[in-house]
Every structure is written in structure tokens, then in C-alpha cells.
Amino acid sequence: MFERPRSGENAILVHIDFKRSDSNEELSEFQELARSAGVTSVATITGSRQTPNPKYFVGAGKAEEIRVCVQARSADVILFNHRLSPAQERNLEALVQCRVLDRTGLILDIFAQRASSFEGKLQVELAQLQHLSTRLVRGWTHLERQKGGIGLRGPGETQLETDRRLVRLRIKQIKKRLDKVQLQREGRRKTRRKRAVHTVSLVGYTNTGKSTLFNQLTGAAALCANQLFATLDPMLRRVKLPGAESVVLVDTVGFIRHLPHDLVAAFRSTLEETREASLLLHVIDANDDHRQHHIAQVREVLQEIGADSVPQIEIYNKIDLLEKIEPRVDRDEYGQVSRVWVSAGTGAGVELLRQVLAEYSAPAGTQREPPVDEDSSAADLDEVPQIHAASDSDISPNAFGIGRKRRGTKT
């Protein structure tokens, strides 16, 4: 056994490149995750393998290299940019005598730091407990079996069994509370349906500028920071549109590659804000070299939560970081809006986006002038390097549905 620190600040990052595998993670994103968790990276260990080692995930030589680095750098925690099995975590901790955390545990820790609302804290705790339930043996291997002998036999349960029972009980309690919250959300949804309140949800990869765009459209003061998962709890605000119409805009948590399934399940009621929305604004970082891969990851999560059939408009954000790109609206062959080019940081193109929302929210039969680009000489999409149009499905101006609002939000 070894003493685990209450909080680990000095971390060693481990990133392994598996050839001919789609499980590779971007090292830069991993480093950003570590920074968002508030740890200081004292060393980064990289390597390549064909397949994970069953015992340590890495090879024996690489595991020894990690052990030596822990002693030399006085590290408090080792962060792996991969999912580790409970056995692999136990074996590594026994070898290096240091706390080991995989990618899922790191993301859960970041969510725990960001959660501020009552519902958000419950959701994070549920995800953490579900993740912990398979790893309890790691801390109680010395109590795994009951002792035998005269005077020691009899009824009872080990500390490990007690902890497992308590975790199951707590999970059950949290699920009951979240079920009540979901019923409250459903009640507010029915109220909106009667009042014909339209909902637009901002979705996208984490750190693409969703909260900045949310603030530009609503005048709110949501936290905006250049870090992953700066926004966790959903925010809802009414947006006044040209022509007297208004919609409820929802800012939700950003997605990331291989989002832990425990989080997806725990945040079911929050992610329903996206699934029940009438329109999704898929915010994309136009200056990101990995944007196409991130777009695919977002679509994968949307499909997982059942929101892939909701109409979408792609919002290419941060055009101020690109050369010769001006705010504009792109349309498909049917004349429907497919993407809007904006800069949430400078506000360029935000008014165009308002006009697009007004066009989509207009009552059936209402004729509305299409948005006019702020610069008619804007470059065509084909002239933008490495940016390709999405072609999964055509965007259609379906009638707006019903969303939900946060408790205390006026509409």
C-alpha cells in the first residue's frame, strides 16, 4: 500500500501511439486536458506499440521508465491519455507507487471541478461513482478476503463489500433525485409546447467558442475561457430576433473524442436539451487543423444521444484568425442555410446569424428576406484551405419544436 495524495499537482503525462489503430489521441489535446484539470506537467512520456500490454498497458521497459521518472520528478500523479482497465491501473500503481489516472478519470475530475448547479453536481457524482464501482478493489486489496481461524470466523462483510454496497446505495439515491429533476424538465417542456416557445441549442467540440457566441447573441455573461470544458451546466436565455420573434438559446457542455459513457448516461437530462431542440447550431473552430475529425466526433455523440435527426446549421467560428474570410451565409442547392461564417470574439457575422435564426423561426407562410452578406466579395467555400462542406444530410427548415429552460429563467 502507498499513501495517495489528497490532490496531485505535479503530473507525468503518458501518451502511446498505436499504429494501425483509431484509438490514438491528440497529444496537444491531452496536454490541454491536463492544464484544464489544474495540474502541472513535469514530464511527458511518449512511445509506440502495436497493441496495449495486458498487464501495464505499456511495455515492461516503458513502465520502468515511468517509475524512474516518478522518482526523479517527485510526481504526484500519472495521467494516461488512454482508457485503462482496473487491473492495469492497479498493476501500474503497485509498480510506480504513485496515483494513476486514465483519460476517463481525468475528464471526470475536470467535470467535478466545473459543476456548480445542484443537478450538475449530482450528475458528476453519479458518473464518478459508476466509474469507481469497478475500481474499488484497487484501494482495498489488503481487505479483499475475510480472515479465518478460531475467533475470527462468523457473519460479516469485508470493507470492500461494505464500500461496494454503499456505492450502489448512493447511486440509487442519486438516480431517484435526477429522475425528479427530469420530471420537472418535462413539465416545463410541456409548458413551452403550449406557449410555442422555440429552442435553439449550441453544440460542438469543446473550446470552439460556443459560450462566447452565446454571450454575443444573448448579452449574457457566461464564463468564457480558453480551456476545455469551461462550460458544464447548461444556460438558457431568450434571444430577440428581427421581426419581433424570439427563441430560447441553450449553451450546453462541449463534446470531446471518446466522451466517457458514464458521463453520457449521467448527463442524460442535460443532454436532452440538445435532443429536444428544434435547431442545432454546430459551432466549429474554423482555425483548427483537426476540425474535420472534431466534426465527426460531435456527430458521433449526437447520434449516441439521439439528436442526429435534429436540423443543423454549421457555424464556422473564429474567422478573424483566418486570412481573407469575411462573414457570410452559405446555402445548399435547395436554398436552405447550411453554414454561417462568424467571429464570436469580434462580433463579426453575429447579426447575419440573427437573421438566419429569424428566417428559420418565422411562422409558416411568412415570407422573409434572406440574410445579406456583410461583404458580398467574400471568398467561396472552395477557396478556403482544408475546409470542406458537410454532406451527411440536407438542412431543411423544419418547424421549430419545444425545448427546456433553466429554473428561474424568464421567457
User: Could you list the spans in which at least 5 consecutive residues all have pLDDT below 50?
Assistant: 1-7, 138-149, 374-411
Largest sheet at a glance? Answer: 7 strands, mixed
Total strands: 11
Cα shape:
globular
Strand fraction: 15-25%
Note the gap between the termini. 56 Å
Strand order within the widest sheet? 6-7-5-8-9-11-10
What oligomeric state do the depicted chains represent?
A: single chain
Please count the helical segments. 11
String of helices and strands:
EHEHEHEHHHEHEEHHEHEEEH
- Mean pLDDT equals 77
Q: Rounded to an integer, what's the Rg over CA atoms?
A: 24 Å
- What percent of residues adopt helix (DSSP H or I)? 25-40%
Instruction: Briefly note the structural class of the backbone.
Output: alpha/beta
Write the layout of secondary structure elements.
Elements: E1 10-18, H1 27-36, E2 40-49, H2 60-73, E3 77-80, H3 86-96, E4 99-101, H4 103-114, H5 118-132, H6 159-195, E5 199-204, H7 210-218, E6 235-240, E7 246-251, H8 261-266, H9 268-275, E8 279-285, H10 291-304, E9 312-317, E10 328-331, E11 337-341, H11 350-361
Parallel strand pairs: 1-2, 1-3, 3-4, 5-7, 5-8, 8-9, 9-11
Antiparallel strand pairs: 6-7, 10-11
Helix pairs in contact: 1-4, 4-5, 5-6
Explain what the structure shows.
Helix content is 36%, strand content 16%. The protein has 11 helices and 11 strands. The chain has helices spanning 27-36, 60-73, 86-96, 103-114, 118-132, 159-195, 210-218, 261-266, 268-275, 291-304, 350-361, and strands at 10-18, 40-49, 77-80, 99-101, 199-204, 235-240, 246-251, 279-285, 312-317, 328-331, 337-341. A 7-stranded mixed beta sheet has the order 6-7-5-8-9-11-10. Strands 2-1-3-4 form a 4-stranded parallel beta sheet, with helices on both faces. It starts with 9 loop residues before the first strand and ends in a 50-residue tail after the last helix. Mean pLDDT is 77; it is low at 1-7, 138-149 and 374-411.
